[in-house]
């Protein structure tokens, strides 16, 4: 019994020791956990501290920014105002510039027209003076004068070479002249040559190149010098020439027509007979004058203009024949209607600027297909389409194979060209301030076939001129451009 009690007591003691050990290890574990928790807590505290610091700094910065905000906002308002002011200034400066450019263009055109008028009047006065005196002043010059005038025929003074010889620029008796050196006499005698030249020198018109004199010794003819070269070079923009505006082209067509009417109305009539763009010379402000009048009679080689191939290659020859009246080629008979044919081809060249070969066919085709715009020379600016078409139809009538179907220069051609020419001139001087797209269509709808054609076309051209200003701005002005 005793032993049982002791065993039980030992058992209890062992159980108590076990429990004590278990609670000791639990306590150790808890202490470790507590330590870890305390460390974590410490770390979190530090993090919170750092975040607090950052928050404080950010709050400080935010406050500073908030303090600056009204200042920045007022600065922004100020700069917006300045930008607006500058924009307004730029807009008004651009408007001013555009109006200055428009004014400048108007003045240039006015200036050009005024100079044209003066030139025309001067030529008229000269012509009247010479016809009143009965005989124009005509010089017979010596070879030595011609030699001096051309700086001993300096090759750099040579300005052209045609089928009738070379042309030199010269300075003679204080004048710029063009000296044409014709080939040898052939069958023509000295007196005959002199007589022929004197007859030619009496034919004077503002749109005919004036023959000033002759040098029978060297068989040369002395003409006034036209500083803007020939129409062919201008249409092809050779030698750095700028494209001719459509207004100038219409002027040129009218001037050629006027010179031809003058020649044809002579008794007996005079036929130019060699009309082509190289024989249309352009002087100051692009006033045009026909050259080479009667030259075929002075040149032994040229019975038929298509035969004189000495100086020409095949292409040139073909181009030349494109201006020749087909009836003349068939019959050998040259009449004023032969000039009308050549004039028609020149008019087509002025309108289209295209090569002469096939030009009649091309324009006919374009008109038939209602595609005329595609053949117009856009380099000339914005053509007035209806008027350009009217001119194209007229030109095609001039180019009729049958002479009898070709129009009359006075009643059919001049009657169309003259009002157009006048309108272009008046458009530049008229102060048609109310021009707008509305007035443009008004003028368009009233132009053709009206009794008031002249008035309407004046307005029309004026409006059209204004519409063309943008293009004109990008073009050097022919009216004032000195190309000598
Ligand atoms: N009076 C002039 N003023 C300025 N240049 C001129 C003058 N006469 C002729 N020229 C220039 O010389 C070139 C040659 O003229 P020319 O009349 O001899 O030959 P063309 O007209 O070319 O051909 P063709 O002999 O078949 O008529 C002209 O195209 C022109 O450029």
TrEMBL record:
SUPFAM superfamilies documented for this protein: Protein kinase-like (PK-like)
Q: Does the entry feature the keyword Ribonucleoprotein, yes or no?
A: no
Where along the chain is ATP bound? 180
Looking up InterPro entries in the UniProt record yields: Kinase-like_dom_sf, Prot_kinase_dom, Protein_kinase_ATP_BS, Ser-Thr/Tyr_kinase_cat_dom, U-box_ubiquitin_ligases
Q: Which CDD domains match?
A: UDM1_RNF168
Q: Which domain of life is it from?
A: Eukaryota
> Which Pfam family would be a valid example here?
PK_Tyr_Ser-Thr
Q: What class of enzyme is it?
A: transferase
* PANTHER family the record matches: OS02G0152300 PROTEIN (PTHR45647), U-BOX DOMAIN-CONTAINING PROTEIN 32 (PTHR45647:SF22)
| UniProt-recorded name of the protein | RING-type E3 ubiquitin transferase
Q: Could you tell me which species this protein originates from?
A: Liquidambar formosana
């Amino acid at each position: 019994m005793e032993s049982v009690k002791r065993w039980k007591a030992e058992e209890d003691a062992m159980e108590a020791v076990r429990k004590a050990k278990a609670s000791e290890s639990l306590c150790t574990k808890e202490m470790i956990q507590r330590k870890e928790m305390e460390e974590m807590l410490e770390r979190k505290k530090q993090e919170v501290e750092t975040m607090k610091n950052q928050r404080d700094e950010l709050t400080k910065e935010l406050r500073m920014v908030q303090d600056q905000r009204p200042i920045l906002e007022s600065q922004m308002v100020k700069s917006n105002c300045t930008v607006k002011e500058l924009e307004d200034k730029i807009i008004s400066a651009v408007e001013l510039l555009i109006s200055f450019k428009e004014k400048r263009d108007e003045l240039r055109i006015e200036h050009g027209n005024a100079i044209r008028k003066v030139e025309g009047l001067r030529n008229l006065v000269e012509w009247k003076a010479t016809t009143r005196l009965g005989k124009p002043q005509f010089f017979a010059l010596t070879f030595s004068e011609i030699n001096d005038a051309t700086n001993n025929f300096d090759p750099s003074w040579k300005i052209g070479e045609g089928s009738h010889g070379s042309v030199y620029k010269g300075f003679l008796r204080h004048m710029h002249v063009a000296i044409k050196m014709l080939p040898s006499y052939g069958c023509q005698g000295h007196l005959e040559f002199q007589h022929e030249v004197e007859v030619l020198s009496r034919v004077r018109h503002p749109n005919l190149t004036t023959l000033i004199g002759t040098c029978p010794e060297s068989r040369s003819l002395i003409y006034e010098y036209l500083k803007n070269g020939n129409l062919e070079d201008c249409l092809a923009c050779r030698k750095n020439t700028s494209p001719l505006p459509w207004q100038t082209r219409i002027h040129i067509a009218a001037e050629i027509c006027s010179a031809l009417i003058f020649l044809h109305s002579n008794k007996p009539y005079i036929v130019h007979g060699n009309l082509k763009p190289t024989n249309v010379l352009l002087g100051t402000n692009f006033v045009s004058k026909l050259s080479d009048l009667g030259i075929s009679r002075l040149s032994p080689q040229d019975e038929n203009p298509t035969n004189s191939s000495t100086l020409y290659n095949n292409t040139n020859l073909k181009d030349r024949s494109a201006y020749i009246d087909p009836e003349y080629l068939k019959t050998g008979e040259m009449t004023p209607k032969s000039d009308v044919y050549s004039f028609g081809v020149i008019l087509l060249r002025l309108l289209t600027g295209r090569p002469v070969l096939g030009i009649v066919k091309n324009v006919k085709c374009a008109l038939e297909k209602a595609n005329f715009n595609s053949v117009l020379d856009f380099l000339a600016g914005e053509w007035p389409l209806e008027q350009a078409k009217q001119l194209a139809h007229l030109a095609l009538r001039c180019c009729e194979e049958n002479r009898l179907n070709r129009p009359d220069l006075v009643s059919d051609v001049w009657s169309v060209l003259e009002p157009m020419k006048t309108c272009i001139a008046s458009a530049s001087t008229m102060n048609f301030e109310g021009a707008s797209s509305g007035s443009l269509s008004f003028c368009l709808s009233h132009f053709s076939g009206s009794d008031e054609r002249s008035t309407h076309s004046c307005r029309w051209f004026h409006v059209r001129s204004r519409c063309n200003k943008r293009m004109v701005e990008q073009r050097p002005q022919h009216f004032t451009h000195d190309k000598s």
